[in-house]
Each structure stands twice: as structure tokens, then as C-alpha cells.
Amino acid sequence: MDSNAKSIISRICLIAIYILLGVVGVYYAVGLALFPIIAVPLIIYFIKNKLSKEQHIVFQFVIVLGIYLTTSNLICILVYLIGACIPTYVVLYFYKEEFPLPNIIMYATLSLSVVVLGFFVLMKYLGVDFQAEYASILDSIKGVSLDTIQEWLIIQNPSLTTSNIAELGLEMKQLINSIVDAMQSVYSALIILQLLISTGFLVIIVNTILRRKNKSFPSLKELLSFRLSKMAVLILFISMIAIASNGNEGARWSILGLNVAFFLMTLFQITGALALVGILSRAKINKGIKIIGCVTIFLLLSISPYLVMFFGCLDTIFNYRKVKIVV
């Protein structure tokens, strides 16, 4: 079988796979959780096989037409476009420009965030409000009654007096309400963080597969050898000022600042942990000690995330690792 015939068969199989994903319901609610992991086969195929613009258009048109004919659902088409098609070409572009892996992940995440948030706005217009559903789930958590909390406290601490249980129960109820309110406010930041994680997995999977046969692709070690731009620290500082704003206009800035600060603080925690792992991996010590050290770092990330975040901020400002990749 010649190469042209193999190429045509490969395209037909790939098209069939993405149409079948619509048939089995992946492009409904499940597809949202897979943003943008389902783009992996497309990205690998398009990197390995150079297609013309016309061939790309025909390829995507056939998939979209197939999804529509098998599901008769425009939302499924939108989910495919947002969850697979657009991420494919975003990642392809950054690979073509030969960006380092950390830059590919970050730039692709920010690009897809604009697309996905726009998609959620469109879905709200079409009658599907994801933010309202998210708020409803959190409200159900807030709906936990004070009696339920007090019953739990009695089981856990039978020696407590009635007045102590009532006081602790009220404090826990207020704490739960405060946490839930904060989680509702950082809805946009949570979406972007989810995209950052899934895009990171996407790029790592794609790069690992491609690098097995072609060492010209970036090394995964780049993920341990980068730092954030110093501008990120400045933006974090400004966002904290915005959080302290008062008044009606101030409330809007406060919510925006809260989302930006939450995203950047989490990002500094991630980069701080990766920086520590990078330092540990280059240290001339026993491999077993390195493994224990890595486990300790991630335990520290869960126990004292702000300490790791502070380390990430210092690494960004002073670049004491002398890394050359800046995101």
C-alpha cells in the first residue's frame, strides 16, 4: 500500500473517531471535562502530516457535518469546535513558532480561556448557564443545616457541652458560607486553572509521543527550568489593591482582582513547587533522597501552599536558578 493510500485511510479513521465521539455523547457534558485533552489525536496527526489550508478546511468540515448528521445537535458541534478543533490549531501554532514547552502551555491556556469563556457566554444566551449550575451546586453545600453540623460535632466530640457545640456549629456554618461565597466569586479563575492543568497534560502527552521518534521536539526538562515574568508579581500586587476597593464600582474591581489574584497565587504555587523540584533534580545526591525530597515538596504544597508561593515569587523576582526560559 502506497503512502497516499495510507494517508487517506488515516484521515478517514480519524474523522470517524471524532464523529463517533459525538454519537456516544462525549460532546455533551462529558466533553466539557475533557477540554482540551480530546485534541491529542488531531494535534499529533497534523504535526506528523503536513496538510494544505484547503485540506484542513475539508477535514474539519467533514467532521462537523458528520457530527451534525449523527446528533442533529448544534451544541455538540460547538463543543467539538471549542474542545478539540480550536485547541488543535492553537497548540499547532505555538509548536510551529518553536516556543519552549512552558510558553506553549501558558500561551495556549490564555488563548483557550478567551475562547471557552466566550463559549460559556454564548451558551448562557442559548439557555445553558454553567455559572448558575455551578452556583447552585455551591448553594446546596451552603444549605447544610446548623443542626447537621451540631450533630457531627457531638459524634466527633461527645465531651463538649451544649453551649460549646452550638457556638462551634455556628462558627463552622459561617466558615462554610464564607468559603462557598469565595468559590462563587472565583468562577472565572477556576475555569482558567482547569484549562491550565488540562492544557499542560495535553502538551505533555503530545510532546512525549512526538519526542519518542524525534528528539528535536522540546524536552520535558524545560518544565523544571523556567520562571514567570516579573510582570506577574506586579499584576498580583495590583490585583490585591483592587480586592481592597469599596463601593459599587469597587465591588466589580474587587471581584476581578480576586480572580486574578487567585489565579496568580495558584500559579506561583505551581511554579514554586516546580522550581524546588528542579533544584532537587540537579543536586548531586542519592536518587532515593531526591524522591523523598519531591514527595516532601508536594506535601509542603498541600500543607503550606503560601510558603511555596512565596518561594515562587522570589524565584520570579531574583531568578536565583539563572533560568533562561521566561513565561
Architecture blueprint of SSEs:
Blueprint: H1 3-23, H2 29-33, H3 40-48, H4 53-71, H5 74-96, H6 101-125, H7 130-142, H8 146-156, H9 162-185, H10 187-211, E1 226-227, H11 230-243, H12 247-282, H13 287-303, H14 305-318, E2 325-326
Parallel strand pairs: 1-2
Helix pairs in contact: 1-4, 3-5, 3-10, 4-5, 5-6, 6-10, 7-9, 8-9, 10-12, 11-12, 12-13, 12-14, 13-14
Note the main attributes of this structure.
mainly alpha; 327 residues; globular; single chain
Overview of the molecule:
The chain has 327 residues and is mostly helical. It is built from 14 helices and 2 strands; from the N terminus they run ααααααααααβααααβ. The protein has 2 domains: 1-218, no CATH class; 225-327, no CATH class. Helix content is 78%, strand content 1%. It has a two-stranded parallel ribbon. Helix 12 (247-282) packs antiparallel against helix 13 (287-303) and helix 13 packs across helix 14. The radius of gyration is 24 Å and the shape is globular. InterPro entries: DUF2232 (IPR018710). Keywords: Membrane, Transmembrane, Transmembrane helix. Pfam families: DUF2232. The chain crosses the membrane at residues 12-45, 57-83, 104-126, 186-210, 231-247, 253-279, 291-312.
